[in-house]
Amino acid sequence: MTTSPLPALLVMAPSADGYGSDRALIGILPDLVQHFSVTILAAVDGPMLVTRVTVGDQKIRLVGVHLLSPTSVTRLEFRNEQMKEAAEYLKASDEPTIVMGDFNCTPWSPFLSDFLEATGYRDSRQGFGFQATWHKDLGLFKIPIDHALVSDQVHVHDRFVGQPGGSDHLPIVFTVSVGQRRSEKVADELRLIDDVPFARK
Hints:
Number of domains: 1
Radius of gyration: 16 Å
CATH superfamily: Endonuclease/exonuclease/phosphatase
CATH topology: Deoxyribonuclease I, Chain A
């Protein structure tokens, strides 16, 4: 795994085969950015974009990933190695964090469960319904493979699936705040975060 600094605003153009430099994208207003880097996951040289931003008096680490699709046994193994390496990198810091992107992995996968257990993060989908994102044209057969996973200090107030754009994935849109660790929040605040049963269309 290697890390290199980048300018505050980065655009990564899609590659011809769809599996190259389009693996991750974060667009951030430059005046919010404290740090921006690309961390290369050793497994199949996959990029993981990392930035730290300040909004008001809240600081947060944002991480963008696009893991390999498991279309063969070899690619499945590579994707799982990417997840393990990403988890090792992320858990080394206890700063408030959101890691988001196309994990090519469903919420019920044991490999995503292992990732959540290793990092201590939770799925922002929790309490907001199924929220499937791929393939946008599959109707009721869509599956949720795009995730926003949050650390304990990040509180999710709203989350829904957005309208289709130029991708075969649907976007996820969510509202968060950074504060006390979740275990320290009172019951009323927990209900505010978790008791929203259905995603908006």
